Amino acid sequence: MLQVDSVKRGAVMTKYFRKELEKIKKKLLSLGAIIEQRIHLVCKAVLSCDADVASRIISSDNEIDEMEVEIEEDCLKVLALHQPVAVDLRFIIAVIKINSQLERIGDQAVNIAERVDVLAKKEIMDFIFDYTPMIEKAEFMLKKSLDALVNFDLDIAEMVCVLDDEVDRMKEDAYDKIKIAMKNNPERLGYLLNFFLISRHIERIADLSTNIAEDVIYLIEGEIVRHEKIDGEK
Amino acid sequence: MLFSLLAASWYISVSMEHIIIERAQDSLKAQALILGDQLGRHISSNNFKEVDGICKKSVLRVNTRITVILPDGSVIGDSEGDPLKMENHKNRSEISKALSGAAGFSIRFSGTLRQRMMYVALPFIFEDKIKAVVRTSLPLTVIDNAVSLIKVKIIIGVVCIAVFASFVFYIASRRISRPVEKIKYFADKFAKGDLENKIPAPKISELSSLSEALNKMAVHLNNRIEKVVSQRNEYIAVLSSMIEGVIAIDMNDEIIGINEAAAKMFNISRNDVKGKSIQATLRNSDINKALENILNENTAVQESIVVFNDKGENFFDTFITPICNSANHRIGTLLVFHDITQKRRLDIMRKDFVANVSHEIRTPLTAIKGFVETLHYCIDKDKKETGRFLQIIIKHVNRLEVILDDLLSLAKLEKKEEAKEFVFEKRCIKNVLETAVQVLESKAKEKNINIEIKCDGKIMAMIDAGLFEQAIVNLLDNAIKYSPDKTAISINARRDEKKISIGIEDSGCGIPKEHIPRLFERFYRVDKARSRELGGSGLGLSIVKHIVKAHGGDVYAESSLGRGSTFTILLPFQGI
Question: Do residue B285 and residue A33 have CB atoms under 8 angstroms apart?
Fold first, then answer.
């Protein structure tokens, strides 16, 4: 009698465990969708120097923090109750890490919004540097890293890691051009400083997206690829 | 069958055994009787030697052993042995029976002859007194042989019958089982889903009604299935041809159905998506939030959602309703998407246009009014001031004139479009380009801008020369306006099989990406302040677009910030 009971309980626990994993995955992807939307909005705000959008982004950041805490607590609960092993354990760990990267990307969006807010209050300068390709690339990398997570696709994750170099190059290009602009317009230093800082935040977003991609690779392969170059690079 | 055969054969052999023994008995009895008559004289006359002699003589003719015994038990004659040497037979069972007056019978082992014998003893009665017992006997082996012979015959008979019967049985059962097997084969096919074949009528009438019933069942099932399939296909056809996107999800937020329109809207593949959660596939926070709200309520919800892909933003009106089964339990959620992107764009365009027109015309008017009033008050004051004010007024009046001229051109163009009043002639493109450059020569010279034409003189097209020239002039004017001093503008005209392309390339400040789709709208300006200062009306590009469209062509812009822009006109080439 006792043996039958424990088997039944085991089956019920497994079903409950599976459901919990599904719920966590859905919550993580919902957070991902929100972050993607905020990045898209803040990038539009940068290109059109829109202060309204910027202030909206700054004020709605708590929502992100709450979601991040919720997801982390759910993961810890699963670890304590079910002691998962193998793929399931890697999954929970990957979720915890990606969860924290997403929250940091959200923070970077807020940082960019704060810069835009400051810039919008000052007098606009003539064209200095076009952030469009850099922003688009960072958005693309974020989207693709989440695609890799959803589809368990190793190739997409590796592609994201490779794209990080392009964004670094664009950041250096911005640095050079803005440096020249500072030399030529020393009276607009405040404006140009804020303008430059945006490039650092965009580059951080790209880095964090790369981290997400690396976490996905870990999840799929069980190997940690951080700080290494992907095959094919020097 | 085998059992009954065995039982029958056993019964028969046992009966046969009895019959044989009885017959042997009878024959022994008869022999004893006949012998008794023969021996009678000699027994009554106590001629015992003669008795014995006859016994021994008769054995030569018959196989029977004969023994004659006196009532006291002594043997007086025997066909085999010496009677004087034989022991007293009084106590033998058949003898004692015979001595009591009845016929005696026994089967036993004979000490004398050392084998089993059957004995029949009859009393010989003379003058009402038993004078002697005549006993005949037969060795059992004879009987046994006869019995075994019969038994063998019976066994052979039984085996033959068995074989024959099995054979007949087999044939008979095959006649039944073959058609049953055939019916089973077709029934199996029905069970697997192949309802097409009909069972052929078997020869046995009992089975034919069975096969007919099965056939009818198959036909009926087939019809039902066809009906269900065709209904399902109708639903699928309806869902596939809808323009609206439809997605159905279950209580776990997993996609159970999605039509083509929805898959296109969100740029996903229908086959990949079944069974995945809607959060994983659509990744849209507006939808996620709306779904959370409807989770606990059973009411319908309408939301406007934004979906962005690489081509830009799309707006959808979304209707979210719960799906309930017949018992009114919630089993899922239905989402229906209407694409209102176009509508929204048109709305925005219209609003902007109205705002822009009134602003464009109001601004100069306000300035003019202001200065006129000022003049009115200080008319006798400083002549220099008065002169300056009048200059400013004239400048604004001119501006209004430019705007109104352009508006009129646009209106005329639209009227011509409607009435299809254009007149096309075959012209050399290079000439038109050169004329246009000439018109703007002085402006270009002012900024030291060099305009270069790269065009093959042989390129010809059917155009309205005047209008086409105006379009080129407008584009060139913009190029000159937004190029810094001492740069170059190049006009490149090319022809390939299907079209002529004319590109005007400058090295100006460029146009930010998000403005490019709206560039050709009326009064649309990228940088309002700067463009007004440079004297534009905001209608130049709109006029170009109308002219090019009237020629059946298209115009588009490419630009990169800080480097320059290229405006390209495409004309269809009609094989001239």
Answer: yes
